[in-house]
Design a protein that fits this description.
Helix content is 19%, strand content 26%. It is α/β, with parallel strands linked by helices and 363 residues long. It contains 5 helices and 40 strands. Among the domains are: 89 residues, 3-Layer(aba) Sandwich (Udp-n-acetylmuramoylalanyl-d-glutamate--2,6- Diaminopimelate Ligase, Chain: A, domain 1), CATH 3.40.1390; 35 residues. The longest helix is centred in the last third of the chain and has 34 residues. α2 links the parallel β5 and β6.
Length: 363
C-alpha cells in the first residue's frame, strides 16, 4: 500500500510542496531512505542524512529549503512527534488476523461475538462473554466467563482477560498481558509483623510463626475507552469492588496495577511502574519508568513523577516529583547537590576537629 504526498499531508493537516502526486510506501531515517520512502527529518540536525540516502520526499521542519536538499516534494510539520503519530497510524497495517472465527477456537455457545470480528486460532472465550463488533483477537488469547469487550478491540497473542472484566471501545492489549488475575491479599490469624511495623515505624514485639490466609478476589476490573495495556502488564481484580482504569490511559510493558486501584483518565505509566493495592490515581498522571506508588494513598491530577521515584504519601494535584522517597523535583535536585558536597564537607569538619584538638592540647 502506498500514499501520495497529498494524501499524507491532508491526513496530518500539514502543508506540502512539490510533486504532491509522488507516492510513498514507507517511512525511513534519511540516510537509509530509498526512492519509495518518506525521509523523516523533522529537525535540522537530520538534514545531512538526506544527501546520504535516496529519498525523493521528506517530512521536514517548518521553512526548510527542500529544493536545496535535492528533494522532489516535502511535507512541513510544526510538531514532529504529533506528525509521527499520524504518519505511523497511516503506514501501520496492523497484525494480520483472518476475518471470521478460526475453526481451532474454543468459544462457549452462550458467548456473543459482534459483527466483523476476526478471531485467530487457539482462542478461548468463556460462557456469557460478549465481544464487540470489529474486534481483532490474535492466537492463544483467553477471555473469561462474562467478560465484556467493546467495539474495535485489538487483543494480541497470549493475552489473558479474566472473568467479569469489562472493557470499553478501541481497547489495545499487547502480547502476554494479564487483566483480571487475583489480587495479592493475605492475612494472618493475629497481628502480623507487617502490621506492627506500619504502626510503630520499625519496632517489633514478639515474633510469632504464623501462616498466611488467602483473601479471595470477588471483584473484577473495569476499563474505559481508548485504553492500551502493554506486553506482560498485569491488572489485578478487586477484592470486593472493581479495580478501575479510566478512558485514554496507557500502560507500558511490565506495569503492575494492584487490586482495588482506581486510575483516572489519560494517564501514562511507563515500564515497570507498580501501583500497590487500593491507591487512587487522578487524571493525566505521568509516572516514568520504575516508579512505585504505596498502597492506600492518593496521587492527584496532573502529577508527574520522574524515573524510579517512590511515592509513599499523598501527592497533591500538579506536583512534579522525583526521588526515593519522592519529593518536589526542585527539592530533590538541591538534596542531590548537597549530597555531592558531603565528601568536601566531611573533610572540612575533620580539619576543623583537628584544629580544635590542637588548640585544646596547647591549653
Amino acid at each position: 500500500m502506498s500514499h501520495s504526498i497529498r494524501e499524507i499531508a491532508t491526513a496530518l493537516g500539514a502543508v506540502a510542496e512539490g510533486d504532491l502526486d509522488l507516492r510513498i510506501a514507507r517511512a525511513s531515517e534519511p540516510a537509509t531512505a530509498g526512492p519509495d520512502a518518506l525521509a523523516l527529518a523533522m529537525d535540522p540536525k537530520f538534514a545531512d542524512g538526506i544527501a546520504k540516502g535516496q529519498a525523493r520526499a521528506a517530512l521536514l521542519w517548518q521553512d526548510a529549503d527542500w529544493r536545496a536538499m535535492g528533494l522532489e516534494a516535502a511535507i512541513f510539520v510544526p510538531r514532529s512527534r504529533l506528525a509521527m503519530a499520524g504518519l505511523s497510524r497511516m503506514l501501520d497495517p496492523g497484525p494480520i488476523i483472518a476475518p471470521g472465527i478460526h475453526p481451532l477456537c474454543a468459544i462457549d455457545p452462550s458467548a456473543e461475538i459482534g459483527a466483523g470480528a476476526a478471531i485467530g486460532p487457539f482462542v478461548s472465550i468463556g460462557a456469557g462473554a460478549r465481544i464487540g463488533p470489529g474486534a481483532r483477537i490474535a492466537s492463544h488469547v483467553s477471555i473469561g466467563p462474562d467478560a465484556c469487550i467493546g467495539t474495535d478491540a485489538l487483543i494480541l497473542h497470549g493475552a489473558r482477560i479474566g472473568a467479569r472484566v469489562v472493557i470499553g471501545d478501541r481497547f489495545i492489549c499487547q502480547p502476554g498481558a494479564v487483566i483480571g488475575g487475583d489480587g495479592f491479599s493475605f492475612v494472618t490469624e493475629e497481628k502480623s509483623g507487617i502490621e506492627e511495623v506500619r504502626e510503630t515505624l520499625g519496632s517489633r514485639g514478639t515474633v510469632r510463626a504464623q501462616k498466611w490466609q488467602r483473601i479471595h478476589s470477588l471483584g473484577a476490573v473495569t476499563i474505559g475507552d481508548d485504553v492500551e495495556i502493554g506486553a506482560n502488564a498485569c491488572v489485578d481484580r478487586g477484592t470486593i469492588r472493581n479495580t478501575r482504569i479510566g478512558s485514554g490511559t496507557k500502560l507500558d510493558d511490565l506495569v503492575m496495577v494492584g487490586h482495588n486501584v482506581e486510575i483516572g483518565e489519560d494517564c501514562l505509566f511507563c515500564s515497570q511502574v507498580g501501583i500497590a493495592g487500593s491507591s487512587r490515581i487522578g487524571n493525566r498522571v505521568v509516572l516514568a519508568g520504575q516508579c512505585g506508588v504505596n498502597d492506600n494513598i492518593f496521587v492527584g491530577d496532573d502529577v508527574i513523577a520522574g524515573g524510579a521515584s517512590k511515592i509513599f504519601t499523598n501527592a497533591p494535584a500538579g506536583r512534579v516529583l522525583l526521588g526515593y522517597p519522592a519529593v518536589k523535583m526542585e527539592n530533590h535536585i538541591e538534596m542531590q547537590k548537597a549530597l555531592r558536597r558531603l565528601p568536601r564537607l566531611a573533610a572540612t569538619v575533620a580539619a576543623l576537629q583537628k584544629a580544635v584538638s590542637k588548640i585544646g592540647q596547647s591549653d
